[in-house]
């Protein structure tokens, strides 16, 4: 796939996930990565129908880097943290590797301490 096609795939992926229920069928349309599927399911369980906002995107070869924001309301268990009902807005950077028209791998970086502070479980 071309760089433009890779970027389009990632935009379609983020749009499909944003504000919608993240079913296995929806996620499987974009990836076969079990790790990514587990990640999406875990955050969907903790922050049902969370939203994603891409602020910047850079692509080269088979990689697409996205600087983005996550917004969701904590209505489910998150790594043993009971639901707080608080809405969080969290910047993150994701690097997606694309192969054969799907996301083959990913790397995600976000400030976990900021997340815990926004949830009110740390100061």
How would you describe the overall organization of this protein?
This protein has 123 residues and is an alpha+beta fold. The protein has one domain: Nuclear Transport Factor 2, Chain: A (Roll). Helices cover 33% and strands 35% of the residues. It has a 4-stranded antiparallel beta sheet, with helices on both faces. The longest helix is centred in the first third of the chain and has 15 residues, at 3-17. The N and C termini lie far apart (45 Å). The mean pLDDT is 96.
Short descriptors:
alpha+beta, Nuclear Transport Factor 2, Chain: A, 4 strands, about 120 residues, 4 helices
Mean pLDDT over all positions? 96
Which structural class best describes the helix and strand composition?
Answer: alpha+beta
In total, the number of domains comes to 1
CATH topology: Nuclear Transport Factor 2, Chain: A
Report the end-to-end length measured between terminal Cα atoms: 45 Å
Query: Which series of helices and strands comes N to C?
Result: HHHEEEEH
**In order across it, which strands form the biggest sheet?**
1-2-3-4
Q: Percentage of helical residues?
A: 25-40%
Overall body shape: globular
Number of strands: 4
| CATH arch. level architecture | Roll
Q: Report the total helices.
A: 4
- Most strands sheet: 4 strands, antiparallel
Poorly predicted spans: none
- Rg, nearest Å: 14 Å
- Strand fraction equals 25-35%
- CATH class membership: Alpha Beta
């Amino acid at each position: 796939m071309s760089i433009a096609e890779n970027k389009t795939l990632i935009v379609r992926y983020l749009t499909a996930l944003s504000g919608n229920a993240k079913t296995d069928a929806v996620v499987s349309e974009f990836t076969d990565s079990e790790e990514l599927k587990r990640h999406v399911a875990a955050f969907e369980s903790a922050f049902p129908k969370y939203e994603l906002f891409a602020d910047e995107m850079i692509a080269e070869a088979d990689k697409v880097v996205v600087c983005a924001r996550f917004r969701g309301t904590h209505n489910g268990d998150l790594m043993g943290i009971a639901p707080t009902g608080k809405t969080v807005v969290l910047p993150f950077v994701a690097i997606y590797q694309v192969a054969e028209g799907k996301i083959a791998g990913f790397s995600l970086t976000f400030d976990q301490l900021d997340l815990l502070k926004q949830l009110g479980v740390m100061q």
